Amino acid sequence: MNTELSSVFQVKAKHSQNPPVEDTKGGALRADARRNRERLLVAAHAVFSERGADASLNDVAKRAEVGIGTLYRHFESREALLAATCDEHLLTLAKKSRERSEALPALEALRLFLTELVHSAGLYKGLAASLGIVLKNHTAGCDATTAEGQRLLEAAQREGEVRSDIRLDDVVCMAMAISLAAAEDASDPKRVPRLTGMFFDGLRSRTEPRGARQR
Amino acid sequence: MNTELSSVFQVKAKHSQNPPVEDTKGGALRADARRNRERLLVAAHAVFSERGADASLNDVAKRAEVGIGTLYRHFESREALLAATCDEHLLTLAKKSRERSEALPALEALRLFLTELVHSAGLYKGLAASLGIVLKNHTAGCDATTAEGQRLLEAAQREGEVRSDIRLDDVVCMAMAISLAAAEDASDPKRVPRLTGMFFDGLRSRTEPRGARQR
DNA sequence: ATTCAACCGGAGCAACCCTCCGTTTAGTAA
DNA sequence: TTACTAAACGGAGGGTTGCTCCGGTTGAAT
């Protein structure tokens, strides 16, 4: 029936059986389980790449040569699968950001972070729409990028470069919007940088930053 | 199969039969057709209100006590139905905006327009995700709000208050993002005004507006 | 070798979308 | 009134997808 929920954002509360599977955590998986999990990730990446983030999960299972039940046992929702599939990507995103941020002004580091987040949202067609939920899965990559984003945001705020009332969610929301817009109309290649710049300016404090020097 | 398309934004290219039905245009409809169309609109509003914008269209037809075929004959897609359902709302939105804009600075008028657009995107749960497509349906209301938005945007740009490279689509995209974010996490009631303010600041020129007086 | 918890697989049910086409009806002309 | 036809109706049905359930299989520990 499903009389409520429907927004792109909502997390569906389903699944009740199935022993936890440990998944993300240590190597407590049986050999066959681990093998299947890996096949699923590879297949998911392939299918999502060519059909978009809302491709049929049956297709993913088929491509992995695994039963659909196995898929759902390992990943309790499409978003969880997406998160796992993007995990590596997000992990390196966070790492790279952390590295370069040492030699960069806080504001610039944050801008680059946003830019890459936008880019990541376009990894699979249609991924942008669920980026918010995906990032909330506590995967290594998701947690890392979330933490990194939070760190950069706070740094920029501490320096007075960014409004103090902004939350990380707001930044993610911006990334989603930009990526969504880009997907809507790919005919204008300058749209992404334009929107990125525009939204980013919205973040900035309207008062002088701590270090003076404002346009 | 459907090997491509999937983004929330994409318009599905379907339907080929069915005489045009005139729908939007003058009273060329047969009496029973007009009656059914009206019932469908009422039913759609009810169903969308309680189940969200992605409720089952079968339910809509059922509630209207009409065959599903009749629904599709009158509205060739979910978005078309949504557009028709919101038509009145959008029409008065445009009209009110036009009226009050005469006594307001261009920038302020645009800000109010954006605020109301955000609000409209929340009319039905999940509507925000398709607001972009919906507005592209050439309904009286959609055309009116689009025109009004364009008018306000250009006015603000002419006065040098808003970046000249912004397009109306960008503004709509902002509205979607904000409304989406609001739906994601309703626990923070100040989020909408915060995001609106933030995004709106992004629109603004960084150079002095024509009439001097900045900030 | 035995045992059993963990794991697998896919049949199957429930929804949904959208089309197709036989039937009904509104409106009109005779 | 009647007869006629284009317009409109309705819903069965084919095609997808999501997700669950449970009988069977297997890894690995003893």
Explain this structure to me?
The structure is a homodimer of 215-residue chains. In chain A, helix 5 (87-101) runs parallel beside helix 8 (140-158) and helix 9 (168-184) packs antiparallel against helix 10. The N and C termini of chain A lie far apart (57 Å). Chain A is 60% helix and 0% strand. With 215 residues, chain A is mainly alpha-helical. Mean pLDDT of chain A is 85; it is low at 1-17 and 19-26. Chain A is globular and about 60 Å long. Chain A contains 10 helices and no strands. The relative contact order of chain A is 0.11. The longest helix of chain A has 21 residues, at 31-51. The first copy, chain A, folds into 2 domains: 31-85, Orthogonal Bundle (Arc Repressor Mutant, subunit A), CATH 1.10.10; 87-203, Orthogonal Bundle (Tetracycline Repressor, domain 2), CATH 1.10.357. At the A-B interface, helix 9 and helix 10 of A face helix 9 and helix 10 of B. The structure holds a DNA duplex (30 and 30 nucleotides).
Keywords:
homodimer; 215 residues; mainly alpha; Arc Repressor Mutant, subunit A; Tetracycline Repressor, domain 2; 2 domains; 60% helix; disordered N terminus; DNA-binding
